[in-house]
Write a structure and sequence with these properties.
Structural class: alpha+beta
Shape: globular
Strand content: 5-15%
Radius of gyration: 29 Å
CATH topology of the largest domain: Four Helix Bundle (Hemerythrin (Met), subunit A)
Number of domains: 3
CATH architecture of the largest domain: Up-down Bundle
CATH superfamily of the largest domain: Formiminotetrahydrofolate cyclodeaminase monomer, up-and-down helical bundle
Helix content: 40-55%
Distance between the termini: 57 Å
CATH class of the largest domain: Mainly Alpha
Number of strands: 15
Largest sheet: 7 strands, mixed
Length: 558
C-alpha cells in the first residue's frame, strides 16, 4: 500500500516560461515523483505546480524546486495580482493515499527545516503542520505581503519557524504546510470593477465582511469589530481584475469540497452577482480537481433540469464543464485537469480502450487472453448497458415527466454496475497473466520452489475471485433489467430482454472460469464454499432470466 502525497507549490513567476521550465525540470529529475500540472497565470504572475509521489521523493523534489526558484526569481521586481511574500510563496503537502494528515504534517515540518537550514531562507509553517494555532492561517502569515515583510520579520511574534529572522530581499520568505485537498477556483464576471467583485466575494466567503453603519465599523462590547459572515462555509474569496482577459474574477479557495462543492460555490456566486446587477459568464479551475467533484457537479445540474443522472462519467463531466463555463477562458481537457485521470495507469484499461474491431481481433488471435472470463465480463457490461439505456429513455419519455426521478435512480445504479464490470474485463486478463508469470518463476532450490508455489496459489485465488465478482455483478444487474422490462418504456422492452440474455451468459460464463481456476487450488474448503455460492447464483439467475423473458414476450405479444 504505497503512501502518496500531493504537493502544490506556488511560484512567483507566471510569464517567463523558461524560468518555470527550469523549476519544473528540478521536480522531474526526482525518481518517484510525477509532475501532473503546471498552471501559469500572467496577470497573477504566479505558477501553480502539482506533483504527486512518495513522501521522501516529494520532499526532495520540493526542496530542489524551492532552491531553483530562489536562484531565478527576484521578488524585488515582482508585480502580480495575487497576494505573495516569496519566490516560492507557499508549498502545501496534501495526503492522497494511505497516509494520515498527522504523518503528512511531519513530512512538511521536515521539508521546512531542510529549506530553512540548508537554503538559509525564512520559513513559516501553516495549517496542520503549524503547532501554534495562533499563526497557522496562511492569510494572516502573508498579511502585509512581500512589501511589508522587512518590518514584520523583525517582530518577535513573527520570528520564522525555521531559517534566519532576516529579510531576504531577493527570495522573500516561504510558507510550508500540510492541508486537506483544496480546489482553487475563479469565477468570471461581466464587470471590470474590482470593488464590485470584492463585494460578491465578501457575500459568499465564510469570513464575510466587517459590519459598518454610516460607513463606520461597528464594534462589540469588547471593542472588537462585529463580523457579518458570508453564505458559504469552508470558502475563502477575494475579487481582482485580470488584465489578460479584461474582466474581474472572484478568486475562491474551497478548503473542504465536502462542505461546499464547486457547483454550489458557482451557483451561489451567480445568485449574489445577479443580486448586485452583474452576471457570471463562466469560471476557471486552477490546478487539478478530484473526479467526484466533477461528476457531482454534473449530477447537480442534471437534477436541476429534471434529467436522468444515470449517464456516463464522460457525459457528467461534459455537463459540469458547460454548466459552469469552465472552458470560457481556455479549453478544459479532463485528462489534464482531473487528478484520478492524471494518476491513472494506462495499462489498467488496455482492452476496454480498444475499438470493437480491435477487441474482437485480439480475442480471435492465438493469444489465450483475453478469454472467456473477460468476454463474460464484457457481455455482462452490455446487458446492464441496455437496461440503463431503457431507464434513461423512460426518464425522458414524453408524458412520463412525473417518473423522471425514479428512472434516473435506476439508471444511476446501472451506470455503477456497468463501470465495475468494465474494470473486470481487463482485470480477468491480468489475473490469467499473473498465473502464467507465477508458473514461470524459477524452481531450482527449495526456497525458490516455495516462492513459486505461493505465487501460483495467490494468483490462482485472485483468478477465482475476479470471475466470481462478475457473477455477482451480472446477477445484481438482473434486478434493474427486470424493472425495466416491467415498468420501463414499452417500446424498449425487447432491449430489456436482450439485457437479460446477456446477464445470464455473463453469470454462466464467469462460473465456468471460477470452476476451471478452482480445480487445482489447494485450499479445498475455500473451493467448496465458493462453488456452492456460485451454484446458488447460477440457479437464481436462470430462474430470474426466465421470469424476465416471460414478461418481455407477453409484452411483445406475437
Amino acid at each position: 500500500m504505497q503512501q502518496l502525497i500531493e504537493c502544490v507549490p506556488n511560484f512567483s513567476e507566471g510569464n517567463d516560461l523558461t524560468i518555470i521550465k527550469q523549476i519544473t525540470d528540478q521536480i522531474e529529475s526526482v525518481e518517484g515523483v510525477r509532475l501532473l500540472n503546471v498552471d501559469p497565470g500572467k496577470a497573477t504572475n504566479r505558477t501553480v505546480v502539482t506533483m504527486v509521489g512518495q513522501p521522501e521523493a516529494i520532499i526532495d523534489a520540493a526542496f530542489r524546486a524551492i532552491k531553483k526558484a530562489g536562484e531565478l526569481i527576484d521578488m524585488s521586481k515582482h508585480k502580480g495580482e495575487h497576494p505573495r511574500m516569496g519566490a516560492t510563496d507557499v508549498c502545501p503537502l496534501i495526503p492522497i493515499a494511505n497516509i494520515s494528515m498527522e504523518e503528512t504534517a511531519i513530512f512538511a515540518q521536515q521539508l521546512a527545516k531542510r529549506v530553512g537550514e540548508q537554503l538559509d531562507l525564512p520559513v513559516y509553517l501553516y495549517e496542520s503542520a503549524q503547532p501554534n494555532k495562533e499563526r497557522n492561517n496562511l492569510s494572516i502569515i502573508r498579511a502585509g505581503e512581500y512589501e511589508g515583510f522587512a518590518k514584520k520579520i523583525l517582530l518577535p511574534e513573527w520570528k520564522p519557524d525555521f531559517g534566519p529572522a532576516i529579510f531576504d530581499a531577493k527570495r522573500g520568505a516561504t510558507v510550508i504546510g500540510a492541508r486537506d485537498f483544496l480546489v482553487a477556483y475563479n469565477v468570471n464576471l461581466n464587470t471590470t470593477s474590482t470593488r464590485r467583485a470584492n463585494a460578491i466575494a465578501f457575500d459568499i466567503r465564510e469570513a464575510g465582511r466587517v459590519k459598518r453603519e454610516n460607513g463606520k465599523i461597528v464594534n462589540d462590547e469588547h471593542g472588537n469589530p462585529v463580523n457579518i459572515p458570508g453564505s458559504l462555509k469552508s470558502v475563502k474569496a477575494i475579487g481582482w481584475f485580470i488584465e489578460e482577459y479584461g474582466i474581474t474574477q472572484i478568486s475562491i479557495n474551497l478548503t473542504n469540497i465536502n462542505v461546499t462543492p464547486v457547483h454550489i460555490a458557482f451557483d451561489e456566486a451567480c445568485k449574489k452577482a445577479n443580486d448586485r446587477g452583474m452576471r457570471v459568464t463562466g469560471s476557471e479551475l486552477v490546478g487539478l480537481i478530484p473526479l467526484k467533484a466533477m461528476t457531482d457537479a454534473g449530477k447537480y445540474f442534471l437534477n436541476k433540469q429534471q434529467r436522468s443522472i444515470g449517464v456516463s462519467e464522460k457525459e457528467l463531466i461534459k455537463i459540469a464543464v458547460k454548466s459552469m463555463g469552465l472552458d470560457e477562458l481556455s479549453p478544459f481537457n479532463p485528462e489534464e485537469r482531473i487528478i484520478e485521470y492524471m494518476l491513472a495507469n494506462k495499462t489498467d484499461t488496455i482492452l476496454i480502450d480498444m475499438t470493437l474491431t480491435a477487441f474482437a481481433d485480439e480475442t480471435a488471435s492465438e493469444s489465450p487472453a483475453p478469454g472467456g472470463g473477460s468476454i463474460s465480463a464484457y457481455v455482462g457490461t452490455l446487458g446492464i448497458s441496455l437496461a440503463t439505456m431503457v431507464a434513461n429513455l423512460s426518464s425522458h419519455k414524453k408524458g412520463w415527466d412525473d417518473k423522471w426521478e425514479e428512472f434516473s435512480q435506476w439508471a444511476e445504479k446501472g451506470q455503477y454496475i456497468k463501470q465495475q464490470l468494465l474494470k473486470l474485463v481487463d482485470e480477468d486478463t491480468r489475473a490469467f497473466n499473473n498465473i502464467m508469470t507465477a508458473f514461470g518463476l524459477p524452481k531450482g532450490s527449495p526456497e525458490e520452489k516455495t516462492i513459486r508455489t505461493n505465487a501460483i496459489q495467490t494468483a490462482t485465488k485472485n483468478a477465482i475471485h475476479v470471475p466470481f465478482s462478475v457473477m455477482q455483478l451480472a446477477f445484481e444487474s438482473l434486478e434493474i433489467i427486470k424493472a425495466m422490462a416491467t415498468i420501463g418504456n414499452p417500446n424498449s422492452v425487447s432491449d430489456a430482454g436482450v439485457g437479460a440474455l446477456c446477464a445470464r451468459t455473463a453469470v454462466m460464463g464467469a462460473f465456468m472460469n471460477v470452476r476451471i481456476n478452482a480445480k487445482d487450488f489447494e485450499d479445498k474448503t475455500f473451493v467448496e464454499d465458493i462453488i456452492l455460492k456460485g451454484r446458488k447464483i447460477e440457479s437464481a439467475t436462470i430462474a430470474l432470466e426466465a421470469e424476465i423473458l416471460s414478461i418481455v414476450n407477453n409484452k411483445i405479444g406475437i
